């Protein structure tokens, strides 16, 4: 752990191994394959000649030669023929066999391209879904950092209903937040010059605000647990996180892997009751713990944060939490496609 999606040139990745989306001959070609051969130098081609080709779904390994990576893992992805000819099974095998081969060489960092999504015609959103699924499953049982390297600015989810729904949600709440902020700024300016106009603006805001249901009358059953409230009022982020992991009967490893958080970072959090996390890390654990929206706001408050409608990243995470969608890979794929920072990874 963790898993990151990055925009980069895979030939420049300083990792233990990069994965080459090769053709069956392993003798070079276009796209990623050709770029890797050019960057590695002629010794890579000579090494590949000795491998005798590679079947679709399989993987073979060579040194990286002139590349920053120590190894190149060559795998042959399936050509897309409509999805009814075992393409998904073969693409799954490409990722799984490449990861297992990297593990046998004690690779701790591996970078993949989006296999088969170029000249082989595999739909990019489906190729991404398979990559995320296989890599995430593998990382639940292995300590490894895996990068999925996407070249250029092409969007992966454009046109999908989920993506359009999220864009609509962002536009709605982001606009409302900035309208409110502009109104507050205008009111503050008017107080210094035209106090009556400021009062009129306040009254207008009250009239336009949605009516809230009155609070329910207090009953004996509804009385708060004061002891619990006082205990939790002194909780910091670390104590709250560990308490909720125990309450949900989770293992530490289950939680930090679901959050896409590095094991070393989790060890720092566990050993330091006063640990100060970044906001994306808190959000990642909120997703891993499957917190509701109010629980997420409370959890963020332990670290001094709040979900804000002036942050597009916050709005996206809020959308998923309100929809009870707690798949960190799906959330990060959406954030990545919107050019927003992803959750978890090795952030503090």
Total helices: the number is: 14
Helix content: 40-55%
Tell me the series of helices and strands, N- to C-terminal. EEHHEEHEHEHHHHHHHHHH
Regarding quaternary structure, what we see is single chain
Determine the N-to-C terminus distance. 14 Å
Largest sheet: 6 strands, mixed
On the 0-100 scale, what is the average pLDDT? 84
Q: How many β strands by DSSP?
A: 6
Q: Evaluate the radius of gyration.
A: 25 Å
Main-sheet strand order equals: 1-6-5-2-4-3
**SS content category:** alpha/beta
What does this structure look like?
- With 348 residues, the chain is α/β, with parallel strands linked by helices.
- It has 14 helices and six strands.
- The protein has helices spanning 31-40, 42-49, 87-104, 124-139, 161-193, 195-208, 226-233, 237-247, 252-258, 263-271, 279-288, 293-302, 312-322, 328-337, and strands spanning 3-7, 17-22, 59-63, 71-76, 109-112, 145-150.
- Strands 1-6-5-2-4-3 form a six-stranded mixed beta sheet, with helices on both faces.
- Helix 3 (87-104) packs parallel to helix 4 (124-139), helix 5 (161-193) packs antiparallel against helix 6 and helix 11 packs across helix 12 (293-302).
- It is globular, with a radius of gyration of 25 Å.
